[in-house]
Amino acid sequence: MEQHFFNSNGLQLAYLDNGAESDYVLVLMHGLFARATLYKPFMERTKGWRIIAPDLRGHGRSGHSAELTGYDRDSYLQDLEALLEEIGETKYIVLLGHSLSGVTAYQFAAKYPDRITGLIIEDMGHKVSGELTYALKFQQPADTLAALSHSIEQVQNENHFLYYAESAYEAKDGWRLCFDSKGIKQSQDYLNGDYTDTYQKVTCPTLLMRGAHSPILSEEVWEEMKQLRPEVEAEQFDKCGHSIHFEDLDSFSRSVHQFLKKWKT
């Protein structure tokens, strides 16, 4: 996998590219707090597809917006537009979006129905509400990686550090997380809302994925999504919470690969 960079409205953004020569492109978009490298194990298991995995603005190796208004919904959609222009014209494009990026994916698919071949929404609904002030409470910088881990566990009241580990790095002044904490809070504030109309406008084949223990996608909203679009494929993962690709890689890979067989075996 190679690291590349592109520009979106003057902001430098990063993405991973497995370099496969293929007309079949799978775009993997992570959620808040994460980064593209979390998808590396899945990318290594997936053959026959060119896989593109961006670091969202404010995450990983991508730039941080100077203005908090730069984390609104239009900014994320414009970033995806710029990314697709960067990788060039291709015959088939499947978008996979986790959490926040699930909304980005179905918003984009609804807006450009002729450009998107398929859609995978990982643990995100058509109705979104959340509050991420706690992102501002992580101890940064921390003297040691263990101290950073402890601060996360104290804020979250459970062991979440493994999920954040890919974003931890040692800076000159101590250990930090390579995401924009203020931007993450602002991203969630902009994300909150009811996207029922947009979700219903999506026409491409769609796979809905839900962790049975998800604190983000309730069973009620999950059932509504299936009723609003009865033609979608849907799978619930009994062992998982919000991050299926992280918590049960085997089941996640099997499900995604089965869905991709619609276009290429």
UniProtKB/TrEMBL annotation:
InterPro entries in UniProt: AB_hydrolase_1, AB_hydrolase_fold, Carboxylesterase_BioH
Boundaries of every AB hydrolase-1 domain copy: 26-248
Pfam assignment, any one: Abhydrolase_6
Organism: Terribacillus saccharophilus
Record Gene3D superfamilies: alpha/beta hydrolase
Name this polypeptide is given: AB hydrolase-1 domain-containing protein
PANTHER family in the record: HYDROLASE ALPHA/BETA FOLD FAMILY, PEROXISOMAL MEMBRANE PROTEIN LPX1
